[in-house]
Amino acid sequence: MNALFASIPSPSSDQLPFIGVKYYGLMIALGVLCAVSLARRRWGARGFDPDQVADIAVWAVPAGLIGARLYHVITDWNSRYSGNWWPDVLQIWKGGLGIPGGIFLGTVGGLLAARLYKVRVPDMMDAMAPAIPLAQALGRLGNYFNQELYGRPSTLPWAVEIDPVHRQPPEMAQFSTFHPTFLYEGLWNIGVMLVLIAIDRTRVLKRGKLFALYLGFYFLGRLWVESIRIDKASELFGLRVNTVLSLTMIVVATVWFLAGGFKRSEEARTQEIAEDQERIAAGLMNSASGESVPSQDAVADAADSADSADSADAADAVDTADAVADVADAADTAESGTSGEPTSE
């Protein structure tokens, strides 16, 4: 019986049967979809149009993929692409996406789109902050199916079996089970997502600081993961490039988080909650005319935010929450009297 739990078995295939779709690409696509869905809900909970998230994702996701691929190609040029780079540099389905590059260009693409659509950038960044590690966590599962980016040899019960053909570098051929660093990073990212959501519900941070917290948390976990990985990597100052970058980004995120203070006053917190609920109320009032409205989940999330504030300091916000509920009832009544045409989400 114990042998059944001696290790995580290697995948039987790296692609879906019959249709030949690579699990690596499938997990990345699933991660993007789940991240957009979470960000839509969080953006709607702030009283904004959830469809704006999709508009920005159209820019941010391709930019992130390009950035991730460029980062991988640049940092692995000498070991994988020098002298034989075409068409290998385009074969993403074989693996090779560097998350740091994806974060950088994805953020740049998202910021440009936010400016284009006149979206409040700090609010959008905070709405996206927990969604990005969710995408990263699911995307990391693709490394399992590709049997890549694992760590040192291990005999722990959760060590992952790697087929002989995928055991790199060559001196590792004698070992069969290794640290599943992709699983460690995925679980860390899920934890980061949950912590960010919990912190954001309190509304104690100033706008934009949640994203800085995401960067710091992510690269802190990445720093530890890099210390376990054994795959070939370019070095800088005698360290893996990703290790140097992680240390740099931890410093950058810390400075960003602390600059100008990170905690908002009770008055500012209560005011923001009230503003969110007023936007939701305005959206619900437009429901009868078929305009985009916040979802019921958004209303519930806004109410939860009001509950997280102190009752004495948040009296105005709670009154606004009651008004939101009244408007929602009125909107439902008005909608029931219309021709029955569906409203936009």
Would you write up a description of this structure?
- This protein folds into two domains: 2-258, no CATH class; 266-336.
- The chain is built from twelve helices and four strands.
- It has helices at residues 23-45, 51-75, 77-81, 99-116, 121-128, 131-146, 181-202, 209-226, 241-258, 266-285, 296-308, 315-336, and strands at residues 160-161, 177-178, 235-236, 239-240.
- α1 crosses α2 (51-75), α1 runs antiparallel to α6 (131-146) and α7 (181-202) packs antiparallel against α8.
- The model is unreliable at 309-321 and 330-345 (pLDDT under 50).
Q: Spans with pLDDT under 50 lasting ≥5 residues?
A: 309-321, 330-345
Mean pLDDT: 82
Return Rg in Å. Answer: 23 Å
Which range best describes the helical content: under 10%, 10-25%, 25-40%, 40-55%, 55-70% or over 70%?
A: 55-70%
Précis, in short:
The chain has 345 residues and is mainly alpha-helical. The protein has helices at residues 23-45, 51-75, 77-81, 99-116, 121-128, 131-146, 181-202, 209-226, 241-258, 266-285, 296-308, 315-336, and strands spanning 160-161, 177-178, 235-236, 239-240. The termini are far apart.
Descriptive terms for the model:
mainly alpha, two-stranded antiparallel ribbon, two-stranded antiparallel sheet, 12 helices, 2% strand, globular, disordered C terminus
Could you outline the blueprint of secondary structure elements for this entry?
Elements: H1 23-45, H2 51-75, H3 77-81, H4 99-116, H5 121-128, H6 131-146, E1 160-161, E2 177-178, H7 181-202, H8 209-226, E3 235-236, E4 239-240, H9 241-258, H10 266-285, H11 296-308, H12 315-336
Antiparallel strand pairs: 1-2, 3-4
